[in-house]
Amino acid sequence: MKKWLLLISGLLMAPSLLAAVTLTVPMNYQLLAVQGKHLPGALNSIELPAGRQSVLVQFISQENPYNVNELSALVRSKPIRIDFVAPEQGEIRLKPPILTTPDDIKRYAKQPSFSLIDEKNGEVAYQAQMLTVQGSPLNADYNDMLAKSLGLPAVKKMEMTPLSGSSPQTSPSTAQQPQPSSDTTVPAAGDASQDRIEQLKAQFMAASPQERKAFLSWAVSQ
Residue 71: which domain range? Predict the structure, then answer.
């Protein structure tokens, strides 16, 4: 028993197992893909293990985000692969320049520039490479795009585990529904719902102003 306690204590204290850093991008950027993970949709923040990392980000903004009365054209950059070394712990944030006019935004989307800043306000070294989307951005598989750019196989999407007794072939009159014990973990139904919401958000942001207006008009009528 003592040996097991010592082993568990050693694992909990191992720095390599606790090492993690949070990468955050501003609202006019989105995280499209991360090396070794399958993202269901665009994110603004993610936790990464320490070591060399590759992520795919994209600048996306309305042409005139300061006009709150109407939707302006959507401006986006090509997907940008960022390679950097994550520290063992802490935070890294992507910091772009301040853009004040529609012309600034359009120029910036063609040639984005930014800094990676750590929690001590120091710069993190990185390399950036712009990738090309084949076809419509709405149908792009950014997880696959990042993997291919790194020469790696695509990360497979994790399958959701069905709830017990959900099979349509089981009749309540012929079989009793299994009851989970007190120490059985049942997958949260909200996980799948959150994945779908993130996918819808990513598709909405990638749509044109005309497509977004049409979608909003349809949604209000429902």
Answer: 19-156+191-221
